[in-house]
Design a protein that fits this description.
The protein has 214 residues and is α+β, with helices and mostly antiparallel strands. It has helices at residues 2-9, 24-30, 32-42, 45-68, 90-99, 144-148, 180-190, and strands at 119-126, 133-141, 160-163, 178-179. Strands 1, 2, 3 and 4 form a four-stranded antiparallel beta sheet that branches. It is globular.
């Protein structure tokens, strides 16, 4: 199924996508097999904790570092870093989301499908009126037609994006925001400390520099 998705996204003639045997809707339906495979491989509780805890711990430490303004061992970036982009495979995106039992559905895709170039986004925000910190989690990806047509992404033509519900986050009815304190509690509970790299032994990756944004 993956090659067929890539054929469509890479603008191959429709007669050559899956040998011309699948409509776009049928291709989308077929991606359920990918999601099922990742669900089996990544989200059973033991496997999920073993495979996703290390990434989750680094993300949590990076957020704690940004919140405190002080260096935290095992965090990525620097205390004043405003944006971190962590590159991973679609399987590990599914696994990380699975630790918090989060789900998504974007236009044109099947439930929980990790689309080509998709991203799981964790936003740490300060509430100006109270000084409290909240977390918003999104899944975002270009639609298949945006990928196929190389559509420039703009404010007027954004990628498909969905804010995710964090179960047991204690959200108000009108908001999916979660306090950072509650987010930390839920993620810490999901992380298996035995599956997290020793802070004293690891060498954090150096950030890329000099990468043009255009």
């Amino acid at each position: 199924t993956d090659p067929f998705v890539m054929e469509y996204a890479n603008n191959m003639p429709l007669r050559d996508v899956a040998w011309g045997q699948l409509s776009l809707n049928e291709l989308s339906q077929l991606t359920r097999f990918i999601t099922l495979a990742f669900s089996i491989e990544m989200t059973p509780p033991y496997l999920n904790a073993a495979q996703s805890s290390n990434a989750a711990a680094h993300i949590l430490r990076s957020m704690e570092q940004a919140l405190s303004g002080r260096h935290v061992a095992g965090a990525f970036g620097m205390p004043r870093t405003n944006l971190l982009v962590i590159i991973s495979s679609d399987a590990y995106v599914v696994g990380l989301a699975g630790l918090l039992h989060m789900h998504w559905l974007l236009p044109g895709y099947q439930p929980d499908f990790a689309a080509p170039g998709g991203a799981l986004v964790f936003e740490l925000r300060e509430v100006r009126s109270t000084g409290d910190f909240i977390v918003r989690v999104y899944y975002t990806a270009q639609t298949l037609d945006q990928l196929r047509n190389l559509t420039p992404l703009t404010i007027a033509e954004p990628p498909a994006t969905m804010q995710l519900l964090i179960p047991n986050g204690g959200q108000a009815e009108a908001s999916l925001d979660v306090t950072f304190r509650k987010f930390r509690e839920l993620l810490t509970k999901a992380i298996d400390p035995c599956s997290v790299q020793d802070r004293a032994a690891e060498v954090p990756p150096e950030p890329l520099t000099g990468v043009p944004l255009r």
